[in-house]
Write a structure and sequence with these properties.
By secondary structure, this protein is mostly helical. It contains twelve helices and no strands. It folds into two domains: 89 residues, Helix-hairpin-Helix base-excision DNA repair enzymes (C-terminal) (Endonuclease Iii, domain 2, Orthogonal Bundle), CATH 1.10.1670; 114 residues, Endonuclease III, domain 1 (Orthogonal Bundle).
């Protein structure tokens, strides 16, 4: 199910202004309040390997931890061949304490080998090939396509999923289902923007429990579905 007549232009104008205001009110630069993968992408000139590594490390891990671990690992392994030459134990130490660091280190070793043997050391730029890599799901693949290759891809994580349902833009049970519905109702020009904006918004205002509805910049476009307590 999806809501009709959504004013997407107003929503994205409000979210962008909120993000700019947040940046201006903090001591940090704009990139430092961005989700970690976006920050890594900008820091490493949207290098596909850097984006892929950071995205895998970011799963079930806080942004600040992901950012530090990504930089530590990429300093030692700036390309798949560099990571392939490292022992898994070394990779684990470099990325600790990201969530599931042992599993992620193992996945990265396998990915590096695949990239070297099948793609001449390059990260593929299509969904099918990315999804075939160990530990890569639709969220990761879409983020790599968007951040590394500037392709119109729609990355849906738990924040995008929660906020889309809470606002009543759609009704879905999983992030993957949310992605498929958004592909139908969200104009393509917003696909690459929605993840970074709603992740930041979900972390700061539209939180899972007791969201700050009194400060919401999208209140006119929100049905507050499932909100039992707010601030």
């Amino acid at each position: 199910m999806r809501k009709k007549n959504i004013d997407w232009e107003s929503i994205f104008i409000a979210l962008n202004k909120w993000r700019d205001d947040l940046s201006a009110k903090t001591e940090f630069a704009k990139t430092e309040i961005s989700p970690s993968v976006t920050t890594v992408a900008e820091t490493y000139s949207h290098d596909p390997w850097a984006v892929l590594v950071s995205t895998i490390l970011s799963l079930r891990t806080k942004d600040e931890v992901t950012l530090v671990a990504s930089k530590k690992l990429l300093e030692k392994t700036p390309a798949p061949a560099d990571l392939d030459s490292k022992k898994q134990e070394t990779i684990e130490k470099l990325i600790y304490p990201v969530g599931f660091y042992r599993n992620k280190a193992a996945s990265l070793k396998k990915i590096a080998k695949i990239l070297l043997t099948q793609y001449n050391g390059n990260v593929p730029d299509n969904m099918e090939a990315l999804l075939a890599l160990p530990g890569v799901g639709r969220k990761t693949a879409n983020l790599v396509l968007s951040e590394a290759f500037d392709i119109d891809a729609l990355c849906v994580d738990i924040h995008v999923h929660r906020i889309s349902n809470r606002c009543g833009w759609l009704e879905s049970k999983t992030p993957d289902e949310t992605e498929m519905i958004l592909r139908e109702i969200l104009p393509v020009k917003y696909w690459k923007k929605i993840n970074a904006l709603l992740v930041l918004y979900g972390q700061n205002l539209c939180r899972p429990v007791s969201p700050f509805c009194s400060k919401c910049v999208m209140s006119k476009q929100c049905s507050r579905k499932g909100v039992e307590k707010s601030r």
